[in-house]
Amino acid sequence: MTHKDLIGELANRLDWKQTKVSETLDTFVIVMNEKLSENCQLSIHNFGVFETKKKAERISVNPQTQERYLVPPKIVANFRPSVNVKEHLKNLNT
Amino acid sequence: MTHKDLIGELANRLDWKQTKVSETLDTFVIVMNEKLSENCQLSIHNFGVFETKKKAERISVNPQTQERYLVPPKIVANFRPSVNVKEHLKNLNT
Fold first, then answer.
1. Over the stretch B21-69, which tens digit does the pLDDT of each residue have?
2. Domain B48-94 sits in which CATH superfamily?
3. Does the distance separating the beta carbons of A6 and B14 come in below 8 Å?
4. A48 to chain B, closest Cα gap in Å
5. What is the ipTM score, two decimals?
């Protein structure tokens, strides 16, 4: 489902124009990005928690040259789904 | 930032009542959960992609009894942040 499909689906459910949904979703994304950039944890009921996570530095090997090099530590965005999301997915066939 | 704080922040930005933000966010969460339960991939511009991912079955060991047991395969929700989220987080000190 593309961004556009999602906006269409939300517009249907909310009985809103797609432009309004699109603008609202944009504001949501801006706030989420701002808060993540401030290292905030963001909790959304029945969906999950967004947070930043530090990935430690590690040694990697260039497969062409066999040279070892250091991959520096970095901060990544992480999503931990809530219990009810996990419950929903339990019913899917693996 | 709790769910309530996030609603407060969005209400400020959008100049909406908190109840309206809360209802809209609930609809968003319902749609996201429904689509994930249908194994859909969901793309949100400038934020990332939500998708389901199959985790393979694996053997684990009960540390108390040393007994080996099979953890069955399962479907989990996964979030892949977009390039611009990664860029934002690059500026954070590790």
1. 999 999 999 999 999 999 999 999 999 999 999 999 999 999 999 999 9
2. IHF-like DNA-binding proteins (4.10.520.10)
3. no
4. 10
5. 0.86
